[in-house]
């Protein structure tokens, strides 16, 4: 490594990294704004930066009115980036966070206590710096339920429950590993044969962990077959390797995670080619360590055992609701967010291999740019997820935050729309006429739903509209309300438009945060697939209803019954069931209780909620006794 690189300042290193990340040019003014210093300071920095590139035989291009840029292939950018990261990590004066991580690793992997003098010599900073760093170490280990033990004349050590110690080691390792390290490790895994060469990964430097980790990585490469890449993603491969190295390094110091019972079902695991077992056996054999059952459990599963009792639909709703309240932004209106987050949590909380400290490259950016959202998700997760204490770390939160950010960003580009709930009498024919009139004559609105006087409160609660229109003078709390005529008049339309404009003005001034899910544009293939699904669903439901009705169905009504079921499924699918009000015959429902139960089950099994008005209509096909 070049001598010049050692004299680069932190800011110069950041400028170097920025130039390597940018595809296009950047001006000195833009750099000055980014680093909040004067253009003159940036020009001084660039002298050193240019010198550094010259050492690497790379030209830094400059042109007036265009700025500065690099014209090199991506592979070379990556190599140079690594050069700088290595310089930054090990040659410049390490910052406090890095020192604290190094101190913890040294304390956890030392055979005995370490004095502040020994630590100061190893990390090459003054004893005073070490003393103040140790206060921070104490804080961090405390948050993991561990204790920094200070013994007079003997020095310092970290003590506590072994599983918590390992959790802390995982947390630090995941923070220390850079994207470059991961790229190195993964490309090492996928290279074949002779040309393999492994760069040293700088984690746990100057401790036994570093060499053990290299052995684990090497053994993992020999084991992993490309066919296994489908079973594990890179974060899991990384986690298994890390855990084996952590277990081996702690066992070298006679710290086990549980008892001393040997792992008994080794033959079965060998036959099944269980990757965590194969790697553990290789590394433990290398260091002549016994294969203990609890150690395998630590490597293979997790301290947090997947909680199958957690209701994930409920959890997803709770999380979205709590985060919405905390940051005062209505995420709960975005159906797509619910779908995506539900899928994410289902996978996350029911996986066989659940690695809680998985590597997540987004953590620092999200924490820096969206601190309020980050802490809101942290709070909500802690209160909503059962048995969550160990699961909820920065990586977990950042992955959830990404889903919320998608919803947030999407909203930034939406035209604002006012959502209306319309309270009227009943009859679907009339509602579609009213909807058409309002949508044609009032700008920037959408009808979120219709309600009758009887269910108005529930519908308003569920749909959470911005404006309620009603032909009845209902008492409505905390949202705008307009009484209109049964068929809206010109004056009604005028009042609605004025109210809508008022709501939109408040929205723009930031008083009412908005989030309108974007209407999905149905691709041709989408419509085709959707209609096919509905047809199949209709057929399944029709067959099941035939069985349920059995002898009760009048034979000559069979074809009419099929048509009725087809239209009924269509109505339910598109949220336009018959209104309950005025369409329920309680006596019929009571007389046919058993059949009603079967009908409800058939629809529920096919993910449709059928109301009592629809069931009453269906019961008209029963043979008269």
Automatic annotation (TrEMBL):
Species whose genome carries this gene: Candidatus Enterococcus dunnyi
Signal peptide: none
Residue ranges constituting the PRD domain according to the UniProt record: 307-414
Gene Ontology terms: biological process: phosphoenolpyruvate-dependent sugar phosphotransferase system; regulation of DNA-templated transcription
Stored Pfam families: HTH_11, Mga, PRD
GO MF annotation list: protein-N(PI)-phosphohistidine-sugar phosphotransferase activity
Protein keywords: Activator, Repeat, Transcription, Transcription regulation, Transferase
Keyword Transmembrane: no
Ranges for domain PTS EIIB type-2: 418-508
Name used for this protein in its record: Transcriptional antiterminator
């Amino acid at each position: 490594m070049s001598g010049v690189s050692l004299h680069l300042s932190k800011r110069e290193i950041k400028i170097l990294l920025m130039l390597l990340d940018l595809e296009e040019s950047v001006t000195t003014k833009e750099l000055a704004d980014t680093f909040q210093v004067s253009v003159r300071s940036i020009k001084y920095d660039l002298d050193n930066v240019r010198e550094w590139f010259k050492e690497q035989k790379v030209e830094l291009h400059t042109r007036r009115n265009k700025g500065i840029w690099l014209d090199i292939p991506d592979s070379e950018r990556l190599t140079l980036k690594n050069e700088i990261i290595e310089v930054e990590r090990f040659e410049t004066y390490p910052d406090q966070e890095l020192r604290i991580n190094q101190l913890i690793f040294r304390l956890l992997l030392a055979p005995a206590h370490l004095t502040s003098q020994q630590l100061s010599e190893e990390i090459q900073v003054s004893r005073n710096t070490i003393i103040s760093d140790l206060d921070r170490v104490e804080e961090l280990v405390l948050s993991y339920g561990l204790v920094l033990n200070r013994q007079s004349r003997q020095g310092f050590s970290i003590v506590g429950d072994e599983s918590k110690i390992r959790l802390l080691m995982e947390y630090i390792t995941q923070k220390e590993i850079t994207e470059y390290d991961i790229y190195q490790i993964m490309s090492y895994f996928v290279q074949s044969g002779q040309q393999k060469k492994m760069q040293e990964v700088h984690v746990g430097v100057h401790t036994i962990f570093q060499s053990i980790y290299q052995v684990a990585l090497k053994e993992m490469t020999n084991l992993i077959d490309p066919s296994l890449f489908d079973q594990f993603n890179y974060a899991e491969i990384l986690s298994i390797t890390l855990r084996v190295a952590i277990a081996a390094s702690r066992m070298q110091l006679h710290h086990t995670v549980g008892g001393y019972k040997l792992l008994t079902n080794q033959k079965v695991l060998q036959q099944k080619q269980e990757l965590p077992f194969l790697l553990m056996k290789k590394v433990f054999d290398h260091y002549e360590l016994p294969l203990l059952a609890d150690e395998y459990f630590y490597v293979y599963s997790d301290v947090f055992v997947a909680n199958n009792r957690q209701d994930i639909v409920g959890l997803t709703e709770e999380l979205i609701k709590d985060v919405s309240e905390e940051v005062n932004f209505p995420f709960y209106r975005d159906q797509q967010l619910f779908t995506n987050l539900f899928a994410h949590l289902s996978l996350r909380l029911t996986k066989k291999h659940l690695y809680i400290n998985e590597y997540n490259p987004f953590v620092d950016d999200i924490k820096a740019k969206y601190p309020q959202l980050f802490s809101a998700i942290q709070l909500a997760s802690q209160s909503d997820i059962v048995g969550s204490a160990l699961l909820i770390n920065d990586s977990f939160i950042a992955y959830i935050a990404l889903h919320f950010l998608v919803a947030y960003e999407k909203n930034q580009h939406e035209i604002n729309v006012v959502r209306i709930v319309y309270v009227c009498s009943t009859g679907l024919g009339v509602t579609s006429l009213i909807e058409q009139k309002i949508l044609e004559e009032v700008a920037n609105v959408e009808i979120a739903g219709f309600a009758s006087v009887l269910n108005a409160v529930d519908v308003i609660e569920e749909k959470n509209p911005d404006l309620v229109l009603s032909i009845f003078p209902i008492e409505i709390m905390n949202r705008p309300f307009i009484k209109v005529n049964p068929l809206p008049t010109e004056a009604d339309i005028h009042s609605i438009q004025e109210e809508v404009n008022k709501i939109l003005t408040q929205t723009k001034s930031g008083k009412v945060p908005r989030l309108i899910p974007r209407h999905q544009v149905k691709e041709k293939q989408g419509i085709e697939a959707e209609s096919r699904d509905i047809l199949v669903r209709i057929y399944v439901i029709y067959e099941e209803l035939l069985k349920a009705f059995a002898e009760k169905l009048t034979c000559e009504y069979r074809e009419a019954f099929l048509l009725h079921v087809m239209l009924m499924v269509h109505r339910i699918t598109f949220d336009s069931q018959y209104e309950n009000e005025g369409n329920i015959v309680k006596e019929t429902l009571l007389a046919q209780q058993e059949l009603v139960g079967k009908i409800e089950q058939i629809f529920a099994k096919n993910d449709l909620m059928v109301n009592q008005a629809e069931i009453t209509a269906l019961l008209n096909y029963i043979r008269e006794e």
